[in-house]
Write a structure and sequence with these properties.
Blueprint lengths: L20 H10 L3 E5 L1 H4 L5 E5 L12 H15 L7 H11 L3 H21 L8 H4 L8 H25 L3 H10 L4 H13 L7 H12 L5 H5 L1
Parallel strand pairs: 1-2
Helix pairs in contact: 4-5, 5-7, 8-9
Length: about 230
């Protein structure tokens, strides 16, 4: 079409479902989704439960790290395109698309491939016998080159595990932290459960207790915690 020509696209509403939440909630109930009143931040669970706030004070939000979304995006590209490697041009395109450097995308790329490899090993995913093709580039390497390549691959596999340990936690880890702060097992269990309910576990149970103690001007010691 010519530069001075315009295409007009008109979209019409054929039902009121998009404007009335009652229609969407009815649809959810018909598909075995629980709809209830309560605190959506604590109780809402996508695909299982829709929680409607009883008070404006219960309206809030949950922060999701933007890098986590970018990593998920690249992971989905691997799955949807059924790829094991990205070309240099594809990496440059992804970097521009998610507004990150090429180096950052390459790091996420290595991490994602490491996770895929671990999943294949853990779940014994079958793959075609392509040893001859895959080992072709190794056949002309010296012992020194093979040794270097081995450690590069080992680092690629371990890297996502190290990053996972640095950026994630679990109730058992947080209970262990509290035990080392002097709390007994029952106290640690109760504290972690409450901290989890308040969606503060990612802040660290020890940190939550410490900040609360500072706020309340409570001195925490091993002797006090055990008592």
């Amino acid at each position: 079409m010519n530069e001075d020509e315009i295409i007009v696209v008109n979209e019409t509403e054929y039902t009121g479902a998009g404007k009335l939440p009652s229609a969407q909630l009815t649809f959810a109930k018909q598909n075995n989704i629980e709809v209830k009143k309560g605190d959506p931040i604590k109780e809402d669970k996508p695909g299982e439960r829709i929680v409607i706030p009883e008070s404006p004070l219960q309206i809030g939000y949950i922060e999701i790290p933007i890098m986590q979304l970018k990593e998920s995006y690249i992971n989905q590209l691997f799955k949807r395109l059924n790829k094991t490697e990205f070309t240099r041009k594809e990496i440059e395109f992804i970097a521009e698309d998610i507004r990150e450097s090429v180096g950052t995308v390459q790091k996420i790329d290595r991490k994602t491939k490491g996770i895929i490899f671990l999943c294949e090993v853990l779940f014994m995913k079958e793959r075609p016998d392509d040893f001859i093709e895959r080992s072709e580039k190794l056949q002309h390497m010296t012992d020194e080159e093979l040794n270097k390549y081995f450690w590069e691959l080992a680092e690629r596999v371990v890297e996502p595990l190290v990053e996972l340990a640095q950026t994630h936690t679990s109730p058992s880890i947080e209970r262990s932290v509290l035990l080392r702060m002097g709390f007994n097992s029952l106290q640690a269990k109760a504290l972690v459960e409450r901290i989890t309910q308040e969606r503060l576990l990612s802040k660290g149970a020890g940190n939550v207790v410490y900040q609360l103690a500072r706020l309340k001007k409570i001195l925490i010691s091993c002797k006090q915690a055990k008592n």
